[in-house]
């Protein structure tokens, strides 16, 4: 019973297992639900889906398996039949708008554009419900398509009432995250080095037994708790080209603050120069000289830069190249000073690795880092942490 | 056992009812996630009330260890008693403190066990509880005792999504995501909490509330509990309806906004928006 349901779920990337299948059968057997399709949908959802990010996919699979409507998840929905597009356009554009569009170009052209727009939107799977043309820039009017509207294969084709799972209410939550906070934490754990420091608060049982045997009376020995003794300096690039990566960097940062007791962070813009800051709102008034940072924190700190390293090459290699102020010494000089002071230094880059070669400044920075530039993905993070632990200091 | 249908104080959607009933009947843990303030913890209280079961609450903190839910052995107290020659020292059972899971397993009446905010603890915490939640039994090594649940308790686990939970743990649970209530459900929730509130006030307040939630870039969107607090404040202050009604140009910040916006960045964002709308309007 429903074997292909489980298969389809797995094919769509929902980690459904045999165990959950048995649970579902048991629940059906024990009459947990009334026998309605909605109740069955809710029951199978609560059994199989354990992550709100997968709810939308589940809705699609459910629809496919139990209704025989074709929407394939994961694959790029490349071929959108033309009549569907026409139906959509007709449904969502008023006759006047259609006329206006037709005056803009041929029907085929418009269809081509709409098709592209649709593919783009589906491929991106963005959180919001802004669809085609809400910004008023597209020829498709300002009526504002919404995800339900362009639910290809939905009510517009079949002219029947919308079922719960067809509403796709959880679409906003579907994000194919590469990095979650948990993943980041697990990766950062590689950096752990435990040491006992601080106040003696924990009972040292072995020492107590030894002491008691030696002294002849109860000799309670205490010792400090074990703490993660790794020290980390984090330099974060803010503003400009980094804005699209803010979310991922925030996640990394929140994971890092939870994981390390000795964590110091500073902000910079594009490239490191003579000043860094801790509060982005007061970046011009409250700067910390980079020399002070280099002098204050010992050589055993591990340094992590986070930035896209995408800038004009002059910003790295020439004095006065900074876009914000006149820097007396080139950014490259400062980066070299950091790598000389802290042998364990890596650069994490949120831009995908294959794009690095196209940016001159990225290559320059990677060379300055001695090749230690890693993409901000789970694998990259693992490699970076391994690199940091490998270097003794 | 009768089905869970929500209670007088708690509006349960259909999907939530199915999830709760499945968890109650098959006695598997129910994992509840959702935005803060959508009533995750309250759900456990209401299940307990609806089924007439006692509620055992285990509030998890960042320092909570899994074994603290089972029992703790106070070795230092025993050492001290041994030194003082106290009679109690001969019975190791005197130094074993029961945890919440132990209480739940041995409770006279079938209890509801709430493990609140499981994601607060260390990431290994859920893994350490797998065995116990699965078999509903554990061993006390100090006394060689085995604690077994007479009847599997109803377990409700809440998570705020601060950490992801391990797969093996998830496989054993039913899952429900409390999505943010739509207007209809929200109306039902407000009716339950403020039975004799003015209808126009509610509808205007809800307009503002959903508008606030729509503002892009908010750090913390206001949720159900904040709307309820805000309504309570509005009622308490006896805010005249007009204040809510004519706020088109005068200010974009809702009155008593402190109940809705909990973050100074969000308030600043609103002040900026208000300034801009004033400029456009005037």
Quick rundown:
The complex is a heterodimer of chains A (393) and B (282). Chain A has 393 residues and is an alpha/beta fold.
List the main descriptive attributes of the protein structure presented here.
heterodimer; A: alpha/beta; Rossmann fold; 5-stranded parallel sheet; two-stranded antiparallel ribbon; 17 helices; B: alpha/beta; two-stranded antiparallel sheet; 14% strand
Notes on the structure:
The complex is a heterodimer of chains A (393) and B (282). Chain A is of the alpha/beta class. Chain A has helices spanning 3-11, 18-29, 37-48, 55-67, 82-92, 95-104, 107-124, 155-158, 164-167, 181-188, 205-215, 246-259, 290-296, 313-317, 331-341, 360-368, 378-390, and strands at 194-203, 222-228, 231-237, 262-268, 275-277, 287-289, 302-306, 345-349, 373-375. Among the domains of chain A are: 82-151, no CATH class; 181-191 and 230-390, Rossmann fold; 196-226, no CATH class. Chain B has 2 domains: 14-178, P-loop containing nucleotide triphosphate hydrolases (Rossmann fold), CATH 3.40.50.300; 183-281. Chain B has 11 helices and 9 strands. Chain B has helices at residues 14-26, 40-51, 75-84, 100-106, 125-135, 167-171, 183-193, 199-214, 224-236, 241-245, 264-281; strands spanning 30-34, 55-59, 71-73, 96-98, 112-116, 137-140, 145-148, 154-159, 174-178. In chain B, a hairpin with a 4-residue loop joins strand 6 and strand 7. The interface between A and B is medium-sized, with 37 and 31 residues.
Structural class of chain A: alpha/beta
Task: Find the CATH superfamily of the largest domain in chain B.
Answer: P-loop containing nucleotide triphosphate hydrolases
What's the gyration radius of chain A in Å? 29 Å
From the 3D structure, determine the CATH topology of the largest domain in chain B. Rossmann fold
Q: Write down the overall mean pLDDT of chain A.
A: 71
Tell me the fraction of residues in β-strands of chain A, as a range: 5-15%
Low-confidence stretches of chain A: 69-81, 123-161, 173-178
| Portion in helices of chain A | 40-55%
Quaternary assembly: heterodimer
Indicate the CATH class of the domain at 181-191 and 230-390 in chain A: Alpha Beta
N-to-C SSE series of chain A? HHHHHHHHHHEHEEHEEEHEHHEHEH
Q: Could you tell me how far the N terminus lies from the C terminus of chain A, measured between alpha carbons in angstroms?
A: 59 Å
Task: Please tell me what the overall shape of chain A is.
Answer: flat
**CATH architecture name of the domain at 181-191 and 230-390 in chain A:** 3-Layer(aba) Sandwich
Q: For the terminal residues of chain B, how far apart are their CA atoms? A: 64 Å
**Tally of DSSP helical segments of chain B:** 11
* Residues in helix, % of chain B: 40-55%
> Could you give the count of β-strands of chain B?
9
Largest interface: A-B, 37 and 31 residues
What fraction strand of chain B?
5-15%
CATH architecture descriptor text of the largest domain in chain B: 3-Layer(aba) Sandwich
Protein name (chain A): VWA domain-containing protein
Region (Disordered) (chain A): 122-152
InterPro entries (chain A): Uncharacterised_CoxE (IPR008912)
Organism (chain A): Novosphingobium marinum
């Amino acid at each position: 019973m429903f074997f292909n349901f489980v298969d389809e779920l797995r094919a769509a990337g929902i980690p459904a297992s045999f165990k959950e299948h048995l649970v579902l059968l048991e629940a059906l057997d024990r009459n947990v639900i009334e026998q309605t399709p909605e109740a069955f949908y809710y029951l199978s959802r609560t059994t199989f889906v354990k992550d709100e990010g997968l709810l939308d996919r589940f809705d699609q699979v459910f629809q496919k398996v139990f209704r025989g409507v074709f929407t394939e998840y994961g694959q790029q929905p490349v071929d959108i039949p033309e009549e569907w597009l026409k139906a959509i356009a007709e449904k969502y554009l008023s006759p006047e708008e259609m006329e206006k569009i037709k005056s803009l170009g041929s029907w085929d052209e418009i269809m081509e554009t709409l098709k592209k727009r649709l593919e783009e939107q589906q491929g991106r799977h963005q959180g919001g419900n802004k669809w085609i043309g809400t910004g008023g820039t597209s020829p498709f009017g300002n009526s504002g398509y919404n995800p339900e509207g362009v639910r290809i294969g939905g009510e517009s084709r079949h002219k029947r009432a919308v079922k719960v799972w067809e509403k796709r209410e959880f679409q906003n939550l579907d994000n194919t995250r590469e990095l979650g906070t948990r993943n980041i934490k697990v990766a950062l754990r590689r950096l752990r080095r435990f040491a006992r420091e601080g106040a003696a608060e924990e009972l040292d049982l072995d020492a107590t037994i030894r002491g008691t045997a030696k002294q002849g009376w109860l000799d309670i020995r205490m010792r400090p708790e074990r703490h993660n003794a790794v020290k980390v300096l984090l330099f974060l690039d803010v503003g400009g080209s980094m804005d699209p990566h803010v979310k991922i960097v925030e996640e990394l940062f929140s994971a890092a603050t939870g994981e390390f007791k000795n964590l110091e962070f500073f902000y910079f813009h594009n490239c490191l120069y003579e000043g860094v800051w801790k509060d982005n709102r007061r970046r011009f008034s409250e700067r910390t000289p980079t020399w002070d940072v280099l002098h204050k924190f010992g050589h055993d700190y591990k340094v992590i830069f986070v930035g896209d390293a995408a800038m004009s090459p002059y910003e790295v290699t020439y004095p006065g190249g900074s876009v914000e102020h006149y820097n007396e010494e080139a950014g490259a000089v400062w980066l070299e000073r950091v790598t000389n002071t802290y042998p364990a230094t890596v650069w994490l880059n949120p831009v995908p690795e294959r794009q690095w070669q196209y940016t001159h400044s990225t290559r320059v920075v990677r060379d300055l880092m001695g090749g230690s530039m890693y993409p901000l993905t789970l694998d990259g993070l693992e490699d970076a942490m391994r690199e940091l632990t490998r270097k003794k200091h | 056992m009768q089905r869970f249908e929500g209670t007088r104080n708690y509006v349960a959607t259909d999907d939530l009812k199915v999830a709760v009933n499945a968890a109650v009947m098959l006695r598997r843990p129910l994992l509840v996630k959702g935005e803060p303030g959508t009533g995750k913890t309250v759900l456990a209280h209401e299940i307990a009330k609806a089924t007439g079961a006692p509620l055992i609450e285990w509030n998890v903190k960042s320092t909570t260890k899994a074994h603290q839910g089972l029992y703790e052995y106070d070795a230092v107290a025993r050492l001290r008693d041994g030194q003082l020659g106290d009679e109690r020292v001969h019975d190791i059972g005197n130094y074993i403190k029961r945890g919440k899971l132990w209480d739940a397993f041995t409770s006279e009446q079938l209890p509801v066990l709430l493990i609140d905010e499981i994601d607060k603890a260390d990431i290994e915490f859920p893994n350490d509880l797998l065995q116990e939640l699965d078999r509903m039994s554990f061993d006390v090594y100090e006394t060689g005792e085995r604690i077994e649940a007479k009847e599997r308790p109803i377990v409700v686990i809440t998570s705020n999504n601060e950490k992801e939970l391990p797969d093996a743990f998830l496989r054993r649970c039913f899952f429900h995501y409390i999505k943010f209530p739509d207007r209809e459900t929200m109306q039902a929730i407000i009716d339950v909490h403020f039975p004799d509130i003015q209808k126009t006030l509610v509808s205007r307040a809800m307009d503002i509330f959903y508008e606030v939630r729509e503002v892009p870039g908010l750090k913390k969107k206001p949720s159900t509990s904040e709307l309820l607090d805000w309504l309570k404040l509005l009622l308490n202050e006896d805010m005249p309806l007009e204040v809510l009604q004519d706020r088109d140009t005068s200010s974009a910040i809702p009155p008593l906004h402190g109940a809705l916006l909990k973050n100074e960045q969000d308030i600043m964002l609103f002040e900026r928006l208000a300034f801009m709308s004033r400029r456009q309007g005037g």
